[in-house]
């Protein structure tokens, strides 16, 4: 049965099919290291050991009783992975939404309500780490260019014991290659590509590892990438009516000066510098600095009413995402204890320009029509656009100790501190707006958000393992945490309009940059714990089974609409059974897990009145699923990977959309916005991929051919039934990638074809404002159309 046909079967058949075959969903993207295959079939080559650090120490993936998918460096290169969107499609337990590079939201195992990612919204439910340091921010995970990366690890299920608050549903870890004193190494890769219906792109990447002595080494990495655009901004008009039945007072605008083909081009430049210093036989210091700037033009979505890969927008649209992280890791021994300190400081700046004419058109002329005026009292065109600036500061510190790994009783324990600061500035502009209506200090601004948000997280944690027998192991852990969230500043209109904004300001000692006064100053403190218990049984060195109970959490926070109560922390209880197995002389691996999760009082973000994000706790959901991964080397030179996930995520109580005065959800209502049994958004019921790679001799070159297919079923982008009816359902899809190449003596040449059949997948569907206001105007974020590319590399 093909992956595409599997994706069309009913949900009830998925689980049975998965449990009956070896193509169950994705736990460990183990990769095979195969030698070149001479002509004629030969005995299969044993699979290479995959080393992960999911439990804060280096271990063979097959020995870790955790559901892990790991894409190693070789696998990342083979799959032509260069960005976030490229690798998450090969992680079946991971789903996501995106509005463009740097603005992706990550979800795991169906733990998604569909509204996260706004600067005033909930913290993420999936933690993202760069090496030992967290790089999760409110507005999305860093879109780190994938080059000279040792591996990407996806840890499914709550990781609250070792990874904390934003690892409620799982953790993604990007592990870089470290400096080595073993010897000099360097490499450079150059790539050219062309997008169907779009422009051209190119990539230049390189690294160098230089031993400065037998105890000191440095590693330098750099990249410069241009991605061609494929969305066209075509000519269009929009007419605003005054509401007085006199067409001479109507105003029509057009976008003649904004028409452009392929206008969502992306430019990315970045680099990494790391140093390794062996102080003595026991202590190693590794400082690292990494930074990246991504500039985009246009929008990464199209308007289906205008046409495929087309829209008509009227104001400049662009983004600039710049970040730099300084990190330090110190590893050593005191007596027989391993001691590790990891700390980091992340600085991220986002600047965005957005067309907001949908809101102007559907909202500002409701009722009596538009009425904004200039200083002389003349009507001005109500078209709005947004100029946004987000300033992040994030620091984290963790220190932990670990007892010897070869003892019967082993312990990892530590303390963690994290502080995230986020300055939010959003100017909603109308050209020519009168100064008496504008927000003070911001000419032409009809609405201003200028706020400082601070999220603090302190924790102590510990995890212990005890070998009850040679085959039976008990693992127990717990994390105690304190969280403190504050939000202060200004939001709303100037004094010349409305009853909120400047008119709601109060005396305060708080000072927030860009805010004319203070009308919001709130905070919330919470504490709790997240435990974990696992029982593991090893039949032999190649096969184990495990059972786990774990709990994840996500802190609560403040609603910026002052009439709403704070939203509470939500918790995820996970019950899981899994297996890790190797067969036939380690030429066949089959790993998997079955899980049931209860999501309690989960946080739900949505656009309320005036386009303000509101967060409310939304009762209960239950998630059931199975995931697994197969890696097989049937003959010498041929490697097959197959992985999939079946996820059944549904509300287990009504979502009424209202809470009591304390913020607790109300479930008893006549017309729930989403009744019990409603499927949660974002996550498809079935997601799978299949990769086959054959390596062989071609004259005196090593050669390969490879094919990969990814499929998933349909999913919704909103929890509420009314909004679903307007925006519609995202259809399932199947895409295929192909590549071939040769290499010899460090020289490599390859050609690839991504999305070979030019299938149009929907990665996100959204409206610019609340559906009740914007009606049926929505946008679709597509996958990249068919792309052909060539790549040449040299290793030294």
Largest sheet: 22 strands, antiparallel, barrel
For the secondary structure, the number of strands is: 39
Shape: globular
> Mean pLDDT, nearest integer?
89
The helix fraction, in percent, is under 10%
Structural class: mainly beta
Low-confidence stretches: 1-40
Notes on the protein architecture:
This protein is mostly beta strands. It is 6% helix and 49% strand. The protein is built from 8 helices and 39 strands. The protein has a 22-stranded antiparallel beta barrel.
Keywords:
796 residues, five-stranded mixed beta sheet, globular, disordered N terminus
Helix and strand arrangement:
Layout: H1 3-6, H2 11-20, E1 51-52, E2 59-60, E3 68-72, H3 73-78, H4 84-88, E4 94-98, E5 104-108, E6 126-130, E7 133-134, E8 149-156, H5 160-163, E9 170-176, E10 185-195, E11 200-211, E12 216-227, E13 232-233, E14 237-240, E15 251-254, E16 266-278, E17 284-297, E18 310-311, E19 318-334, E20 337-355, H6 357-364, E21 385-402, E22 409-429, E23 445-467, E24 472-492, E25 520-540, E26 543-554, E27 570-583, E28 588-600, E29 603-607, E30 613-617, E31 620-632, E32 638-651, E33 686-698, E34 701-712, H7 721-727, E35 733-744, E36 747-754, E37 762-766, H8 771-774, E38 779-782, E39 787-795
Parallel strand pairs: 6-9, 13-18
Antiparallel strand pairs: 1-2, 3-8, 4-5, 6-7, 8-9, 10-11, 10-39, 11-12, 12-16, 14-15, 16-17, 17-19, 19-20, 20-21, 21-22, 22-23, 23-24, 24-25, 25-26, 26-27, 27-28, 28-31, 29-30, 31-32, 32-33, 33-34, 34-35, 35-36, 36-39, 37-38
């Amino acid at each position: 049965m093909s992956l595409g046909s599997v994706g069309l079967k009913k949900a009830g058949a998925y689980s049975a099919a998965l449990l009956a075959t070896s193509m169950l969903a994705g736990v460990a993207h183990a990769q095979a290291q195969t030698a070149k295959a001479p002509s004629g079939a030969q005995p299969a080559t044993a699979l290479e050991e995959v080393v992960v650090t999911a439990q804060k120490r280096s271990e063979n993936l097959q020995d870790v009783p955790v559901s892990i998918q790991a894409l190693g460096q070789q696998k990342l290169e083979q799959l032509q992975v260069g960005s976030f969107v490229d690798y998450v499609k090969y992680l079946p337990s991971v789903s996501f939404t995106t509005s463009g590079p740097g603005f992706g939201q990550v979800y795991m195992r169906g733990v998604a309500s569909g509204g996260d990612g706004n600067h005033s919204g909930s913290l993420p439910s999936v933690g993202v780490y760069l090496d030992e340091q967290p790089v999760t921010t409110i507005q999305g995970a860093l879109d780190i260019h994938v080059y000279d990366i040792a591996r990407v690890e996806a840890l499914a299920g709550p990781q609250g014991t070792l990874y904390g608050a934003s690892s409620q549903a799982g953790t993604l870890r990007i592990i870089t290659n470290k400096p080595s004193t073993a010897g000099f190494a360097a490499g450079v890769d150059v790539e050219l590509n062309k997008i169907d219906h779009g422009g051209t792109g190119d990539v230049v990447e390189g690294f160098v590892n230089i031993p400065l002595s037998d105890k000191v080494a440095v590693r330098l990495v750099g990249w410069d990438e241009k991605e061609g655009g494929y969305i066209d901004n075509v000519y269009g008009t929009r007419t605003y009516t005054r509401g007085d039945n006199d067409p001479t007072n109507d105003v029509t605008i057009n976008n003649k000066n904004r028409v452009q083909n392929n206008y969502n081009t992306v430019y990315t430049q970045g680099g990494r510098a790391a140093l390794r210093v062996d102080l003595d036989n026991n202590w190693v210091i590794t400082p690292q600095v990494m930074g990246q700037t991504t500039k985009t033009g246009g929008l990464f979505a199209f308007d289906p009413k205008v046409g495929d890969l087309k829209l008509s927008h009227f104001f400049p649209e662009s983004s600039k995402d710049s970040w730099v992280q300084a990190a330090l890791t110190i590893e050593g021994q005191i007596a027989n204890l391993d001691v590790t300190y990891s700390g980091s400081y992340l600085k991220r700046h986002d600047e965005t320009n957005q067309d907001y004419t949908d809101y102007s058109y559907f909202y500002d002329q409701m009722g009596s029509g538009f009425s904004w005026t200039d200083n002389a009292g003349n009507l001005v065109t109500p078209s709005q656009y947004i100029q946004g600036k987000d300033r992040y500061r994030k620091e984290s510190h963790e220190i932990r100790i670990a007892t010897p790994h070869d003892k019967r009783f082993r312990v990892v324990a530590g303390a963690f501190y994290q502080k995230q600061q986020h300055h939010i500035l959003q100017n909603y502009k109308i050209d020519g707006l009168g100064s008496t209506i504008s927000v003070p200090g911001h000419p032409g601004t009809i609405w201003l958000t200028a706020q400082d948000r601070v999220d603090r997280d302190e924790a102590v944690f510990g995890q212990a393992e005890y070998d009850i027998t040679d085959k039976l192991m008990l693992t127990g852990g717990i994390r105690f945490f304190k969280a403190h969230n504050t939000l202060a500043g200004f939001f709303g209109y100037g004094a010349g309009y409305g009853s909120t904004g400047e008119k709601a300001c109060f005396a305060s000692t708080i000072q927030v940059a860009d805010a004319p006064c203070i009308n919001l100053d709130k905070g919330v403190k919470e504490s709790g714990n997240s435990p974990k218990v696992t029982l593991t049984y090893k039949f032999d060195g190649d096969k184990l089974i495990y059972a786990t109970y774990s709990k994840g959490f996500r802190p609560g926070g403040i609603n910026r609409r002052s009439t709403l109560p704070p939203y509470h922390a939500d918790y995820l209880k996970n019950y899981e059974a899994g297996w890790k197995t190797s067969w036939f002389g380690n030429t066949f691996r089959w790993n998997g897990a079955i899980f049931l999760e209860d999501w309690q009082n989960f946080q739900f973000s949505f656009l309320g009145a005036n386009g303000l994000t509101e967060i409310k706790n939304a009762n209960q959901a239950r998630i059931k699923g199975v995931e697994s991964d197969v890696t097989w080397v049937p003959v010498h030179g041929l490697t097959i990977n197959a992985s999939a996930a079946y996820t059944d995520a549904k509300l287990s109580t009504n979502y009424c959309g209202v809470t009591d005065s304390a913020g607790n959800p109300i479930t008893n209502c006549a017309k729930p916005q989403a009744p019990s049994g409603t499927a949660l958004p974002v996550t498809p019921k079935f997601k799978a991929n299949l990769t086959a790679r054959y390596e062989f001799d071609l004259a005196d070159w090593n050669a390969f051919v490879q094919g990969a297919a990814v499929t998933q079923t349909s999913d919704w982008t909103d929890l509420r039934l009314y909004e679903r009816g307007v925006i519609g359902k995202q259809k399932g899809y199947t895409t295929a990638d192909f590549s071939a190449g040769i290499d010899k003596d460090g020289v490599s040449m390859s050609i690839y074809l991504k999305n070979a059949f030019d299938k149009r997948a929907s990665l996100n569907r959204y409206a610019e404002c609340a559906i009740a206001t914007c009606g049926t105007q929505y946008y679709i974020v597509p996958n990249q159309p068919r792309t052909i590319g060539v790549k040449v590399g040299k290793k030294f």
